Amino acid sequence: xxxWDYKACGRAKGxxxxxxxxxxxxxxxxxxxxxxxxxxxxxxxxxxxGAQKMNSCLTCDWYLKVNxxxxxxxxxxxx
Length: 79
Description:
Low-confidence stretches: none
Shape: globular
Mean pLDDT: 83
Number of helices: 4
Radius of gyration: 12 Å
Strand order of the largest sheet: 1-2
Largest sheet: 2 strands, antiparallel
Strand content: 5-15%
């Protein structure tokens, strides 16, 4: 599963929000680590830099799900 499918943000290529907000910078290569990418669409707004979005990512259901799916503790916001 990809983050844009799970979150239904509408910013994947061809999505409902693309005309308004553009294609998400996490699409298509960062579906499982979108927290590392600035400008993703979370909580109804476009997010900023890694430092600006850190708190929302730490409590994000997608971030937590990916950690559970992989059985690892993915490092937040590190490339």
